[in-house]
Design brief:
Number of domains: 2
CATH architecture of the largest domain: 3-Layer(bba) Sandwich
Radius of gyration: 21 Å
Distance between the termini: 36 Å
Strand content: 25-35%
Amino acid sequence: MDTDIIIIGGGIAGLSAAARLAPEAGVMLLEAEESLGYHASGRSAAMFEREYGNATVRALNYASEDYLAHEDGGVLSPRGILMVARADQLDRFREEVAEMALEPVSVAEACEMVPILRRERVAAAAGNSWARDLDADRLLQNFAGKARRAGARILTRAPVEEIARCGSVWEVKTPAGAFRAPVIVNAAGAWVDVIARMASIAPIGFRPLRRSMAQIPAPGGHEPGGWPMLHGACESWYAKPEAGKLLVSPSEEDPVEPHDAWADDMVLAEGLARYEEMVIEPVTRLEASWAGLRTFSPDRSLVIGFEPGAEGFFWLGGQGGYGFQTSPAASRLAADLILARPPELEADAVAALSPERFRR
């Protein structure tokens, strides 16, 4: 089957790109799993924190905020964040406060905001009120709906088995059939380097990093819905209110091979212990646990652009922990580059996202 653009991957990267491209070109999206957003995109404790990430990532955050706040009624809602530190973490805490543009919060104010905090363990706190919850499922469905309404074809259970360059087109073979297009978009998440190798293109060196998560009941009968997202200093743990419960993560970044991830029980236990050290309510049971793979490029910025010397092979990878909050701007840049339009994003950011930076 022939089309204009084949997108490999049905997570937030692939779906947002399909939504941007389908009004202007024929699009076929191929997803290996039986449902969209199955891996990292379906396991995200999504927040919008515009100061999260390096300078290149923040450029995408800033360019995405208006879309996330307003398009289709918006997917953001109030939350805020609060970072707390032990006495032995204060040096790194001050660095993180500066990096994330947080404002000082007194220990008394922090304990009032989150009444389960253990006052004698909290040496310092800082936060903001503008970080917001991001409805990840709604954003995925919005992009999928836009893509389908514009004529994109979306196939699940279509893992890529073979990729070959045939004259002026790429041929992608799957159990669902063979598809040909002059452009393929590699939005395969943790598998982006795997897809590149299948296309006889040198990998960039993406690293999938596991992050585990546990869902616990509301601590001590409290209603956590109005609490900010809690961060332990030194990226030691975080806790996010979700549907009357808490999601608690060890914030680990353990390198793994691309796979259907699951939580490591020991890592999860250690992270929960770090969380319990800072609160007065113990964790009595886990209601659920899971893990996702956050895939980063070597410089932890996304990779968006055509592979030099490989006509029609387009990278859209390295979303790491920023996939949802950068998706409007990242997908717009991808569409601008593929459709040969002047990018809306600043030229310096476009260059910093290009795969050419790894090929020099």
